[in-house]
Amino acid sequence: MTQVTVCITNEERSSERLDTFLSKRISILSRSSLNRMIKAECVLVDGKTPKPAQKLKAGQTVVVNLPPPPGNDMPPEDIPLAVIHEDEDVIVINKQSDLVVHPCPTAPNGTLVNALAWHFMHRSSGSLSQVGAENARPGIVHRLDRNTTGVMVAAKTEFAHWSLYEQFALRSTRKRYIALVHGEVVEDSGLIDLPISRHPYDPIKGGKASQTGFVVRERYEGFTLVELKLFTGRTHQIRVHLSHLRHPIVGDEVYGGRKLKLLIERQALHSCLLSFSHPTSGKRMSFSGAAPEDMARTIRLLREFRMVSSGGGGGGEAEVDLSVVFGEEALEREEAS
Q1: Catalytic, out of 19, 89, 145, 252
Q2: Active-site residue 145, yes or no?
Q3: What PROSITE patterns does the record tag this protein with (predicted)?
Q4: What H or E segment, with its residue span, contains residue 169?
């Protein structure tokens, strides 16, 4: 581990929270990663184990034991994967929750990259593109947050990697998300046009231009199911934008959401549709992924006991087939048999 020592001088602001203080000085780690490090006792204040919210004082010394950066050696790990499509160039999966996409200082293993390495070795053939391998991101052309579920694509060859990378950069891919949010959204559809930054407690302050389109799909008492389209790709963009509208995502405690105990205890955000041009053939390909059971079960219960309206009047703007996302077709077949 690398040890970093910071002495708090009289010139620095007093009464600043420890996690805020560290997030401004250790930019390579996210605030959530730093919080996990504090809770794991990798941070000391005057030789004692602190809490993330501890207020600092002038004259104190903060010692941070940084974990080593992830290396190029990413061992295969037998982690279940839901593979939607695979060929010689790409692999498309429906990512589960609690799965980090690539190794990082706070998650050096147990990631999607490790799982894909095992998959290619034992169930398929080929390997991830080595583009990005020096940063522990081989084959990764886009990401989903740890607890965001849904459709992702990874590249198996360098040519495919650069082709997909360009498509994501030029916004020629098509991505749609479904989110369950707190409150009943009034507008049937709209565009959230607010800048986003990496400021630890004000992600709107001094940020870059960011746009998210939304369409209401279903309203329930106290909740709304919305379909979302990204026009830009900022970190946590959907989560920040919905929180700013005072309709945070259910389960997203970082941005003001609340868990629904015994139903869903992580952010109810699912990447349900991804479309891109195949790197080799040029053929347009579209993939849909069913939502995991915790989110599907929550929606079924809301429909049964709290349904207000179906369809927000967004007309042709809605593109997601909810019967695919929430498995209604399979459920109907099961009930009929």
Answers
A1: 145
A2: yes
A3: PSI_RLU (PS01129), S4 (PS50889)
A4: helix 158-169
